[in-house]
């Protein structure tokens, strides 16, 4: 299981807290974006297709890390475009 991401993204004077965690049992990543303690956005992303057929745990971990980075990139871009916020 990959630990995830726990970071901040600054946009227009606000600090958005982004958490993404690996829900290993369901092969999903779950993201939450917070502002001042409030959940503004929550979404899950399946990575089952990315790891299908991979037997080597190192290859699985690499595939999950890649999906995690892509997912974070999409969420960060949405924040910076004003699509997630108040």
What does this structure look like?
The protein is α+β, with helices and mostly antiparallel strands. It has one domain. Helix content is 33%, strand content 40%. Strands 1-2-3-4 form a four-stranded antiparallel sheet, covered by helices on one side. β3 and β4 form a beta hairpin. The longest helix is centred in the last third of the chain and has 24 residues. The protein is elongated and about 45 Å long. The relative contact order is 0.23.
Strand order of the largest sheet: 1-2-3-4
- Counting structural domains, the number is 1
| Mean pLDDT across all amino acids | 94
The H-and-E topology, N to C, reads as: EEEEHH
Q: Alpha-carbon distance between the termini? A: 33 Å
Structural class: alpha+beta
Computed CA radius of gyration, to the nearest angstrom: 14 Å
**Biggest sheet overview:** 4 strands, antiparallel
- Helical stretch tally: 2
Shape: elongated
Give the beta-strand count. Answer: 4
Ranges where pLDDT stays below 50 over 5 or more residues in a row are none
Helix content: 25-40%
How much of the residues is beta strand, in percent?
A: 35-45%
């Amino acid at each position: 299981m990959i630990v995830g991401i726990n970071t901040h993204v600054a946009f227009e004077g606000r600090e958005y807290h982004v958490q993404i965690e690996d829900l290993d049992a369901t092969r999903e990543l779950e993201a939450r974006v917070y502002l001042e303690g409030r959940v503004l956005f929550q979404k899950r992303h399946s990575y089952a297709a990315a790891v299908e057929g991979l037997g080597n745990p190192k290859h699985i971990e690499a595939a999950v890390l890649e999906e995690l980075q892509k997912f974070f990139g999409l969420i960060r871009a949405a924040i910076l475009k004003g699509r997630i916020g108040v």
